Amino acid sequence: MALLTQWYIAVAVLAVSFVTQEAFVPTVHAADSSFCGIVPQQLFCTEHRVHSPDGFELVLHRLSHGTATDSGATPVLIMHSEFLNADSWFELTSPADELLPLLLVNSGLDVWVGHERATYWSHGHLSLETNDTRFWDWTWDDQAQNDVPTYLDYINNTTGSAVHYIGLSQSATAGAAAATILRTSPMIKSLTLIGPTIYTGNTTSVILATWAFLFGDLIDQGNYDNGYQNGAFNFTTAFPGITSINGQSPVAAALQIISGLRTNTWSRFAYRTADRNNQAYGVPVAPNYHPEDIPTNIPVLVVYGGNDAVAPKAGVHLLLSRLRNVQTVFLPGYAHYDLLWSSRRTQDIFLPVLQFLQRHG
Ligand SMILES: *[C@@H]1O[C@H](CO)[C@@H](O)[C@H](O)[C@H]1NC(C)=O
Ligand SMILES: *[C@@H]1O[C@H](CO)[C@@H](O)[C@H](O)[C@H]1NC(C)=O
Ligand SMILES: *[C@@H]1O[C@H](CO)[C@@H](O)[C@H](O)[C@H]1NC(C)=O
Ligand SMILES: *[C@@H]1O[C@H](CO)[C@@H](O)[C@H](O)[C@H]1NC(C)=O
Ligand SMILES: CC(=O)N[C@H]1CO[C@H](CO)[C@@H](O)[C@@H]1O
């Protein structure tokens, strides 16, 4: 199918979905247990709350074996994929599977599990209710500019150390973007980017990418039945009808992704007018992020799949060509959601990630 036709269909799917909403309303279990309740019992778990500069509650859970974290243990922040919550780190995919947070704690790291803004375990705001469209008026670029720096600041304040950052999918994109920010990059010890959705222009399927953006959580519908709280947004109550696409609404967030698909750029959020871009960035066109701006003393590990239509191989190769201190794990058979849910992910992904962190202790 011609790319343009695919794009029109994708936009139509988007429009219809946002108008009807019922199409992708998952059932959500009540928040009847705290997050620490789903963490393996042998781990000691503490909850930490900070707020982003734009008022979003950002919750972190710190895991260790004893009540006192080894002083000197290197902190590692793990950020879940969009559409999922951090529970996803605690679900085994097969009998031989191991949990990444547990592997990291067992190898002596000081593990911080982060929750994205506006997700099940972290959806407070200093002044906005979730039924306010302004609560949803942001894109991954705000996570890069506000949230990742706030998590890292908090962890650096608490531990006095720079942090290994591990991000999956869009959290990889936000982490890499944050690593290009001068004030933030000194707090990053290494970057692990799993399925980074940075250059998406070579995707083989626009529809698939759009579909993944909107419906990715439903892939994991089975986990709702198991009592897990996956599905980042509580659409039933917390996702007001969107009537305008002029600002950074979730529709705009989707459009930013589609725009990235069309232009193969990695850019700041592009407002619709030169005036708004000028106000925000001092230039009429939203500026690009540059992988070259990630300091060379931050080692980067990129884990990517050969059949990934969301973080396509050609886009990852473009990223790799622009990174100056990079190692790779290439998994030819993997598609995007395999990077999250493969039954072989421990040997294929988690252990190589652990070795990378140990090399850059
Ligand atoms: C999600 O929606 C359900 C159903 O309306 C509600 O009971 C629950 O409290 C909501 N959860 C959150 C975290 O907002
Ligand atoms: C949003 O929720 C708050 C508190 O639950 C309520 O007071 C307010 O009227 C609601 N606003 C809208 C626009 O529904
Ligand atoms: C980190 O510490 C500085 C200095 O005390 C403080 O201004 C800042 O708010 C702290 N950051 C976070 C996220 O707690
Ligand atoms: C990927 O996209 C870029 C920019 O549109 C293009 O120059 C390049 O040929 C594409 N590569 C592949 C493998 O399709
Ligand atoms: C970037 C940054 O703020 N790094 C700090 C992390 O914490 C240590 C110890 O407090 C400081 O020396 C670093 O400057």
TrEMBL record:
SUPFAM superfamilies: alpha/beta-Hydrolases. Keywords: Signal. This is Lipase. InterPro entries: AB_hydrolase_fold. Residues 1-30 form the signal peptide. It comes from the Eukaryota.
